[in-house]
Amino acid sequence: LIFTIAYEPNFAHGYFMYLEISHYLSVIHSIFHGKILYKDIYFLFGPLSYYAPALAMLLFGKTLAVLKGFLLSGWILSYLAIYFTARLVIKNRFFMYLASFLAVIEMHSPFWCTFWGGFRYTFGYFSIMALVLFIKKRKIFFSWFSGLFASLCFLSSWDQGLICFFSTALFLIYYSRCVTSKEKTSKKVVT
Q1: Rounded Cα distance, 100 and 96, in Å
Q2: What is the pLDDT of residue 63?
Q3: 80 vs 87: CA distance, rounded Å
Q4: ∠ CA(69), CA(30), CA(155), 5° rounding?
Q5: Residue 189 exposed, middle or buried by CB count within 10 Å (0-12, 13-18, 19+)
Q6: Which of 30, 79, 95, 113 is the most buried (most CB within 10 A)?
Q7: What is the pTM of this model?
Q8: Nearest to 65 by CA among 111, 26, 102, 16
Q9: Residues of the chain with pLDDT under 50
Q10: CA–CA separation, 19 and 89 (whole Å)
C-alpha cells in the first residue's frame, strides 16, 4: 500500500519544487566542480544531505531523475519506519494502518510537493524506531542504533538531529532513573 501511494509515474520528468530540488542541484553542482562545503557554498542542511545524493548521482548518472529517485527512496524508507514504529506501539491493527496511512498522506503529495527532503527525516524515524525497540526488547544494542541514527540525523539536518539527539538522551536519562528506582524498591520489598 505504501509503495502504491508513494509511486509517482512522472517523478523523473515532472514538476519539481524550486526550493527543494534546485537547492540540492545547485549545491551538488558546486560539489562536482570542486567547491568546498562551509567555505564556498551556502546550504541549509547538514553535509550528508548533499554528499549522499551527490554520490548517488555520481554512481547512477548526473540527472534530475536520479536525484528525484534518491529523494523518493528516502520518502519510502521514512514511510516504512513510521509503519514499523506504529506496528510496535499501537496494538489495534486498524489504528496501526490508519496511523501509517495518515503519515503517508501528510508527508507525500506526489503532484507538486517535495518538502520532506527524502532522507532528511528518515534517520530520525529510524532513531525513534530503535528507541521503541529498546523499550520493548530491553536489548542495549537498540539504544546504540538509536544513537547512531540520531548522529546520522544530525549530519543530514541540524534541526532534526538536535531534536532527535536531545529527546533520545533525555529519554535514556529518564529510563535509567526509572530502572534504578525499580531496583531499589524491589530490594526493599525482598528484605
Answers
A1: 6
A2: 86
A3: 10
A4: 65
A5: exposed
A6: 79
A7: 0.79
A8: 16
A9: 111-114
A10: 35
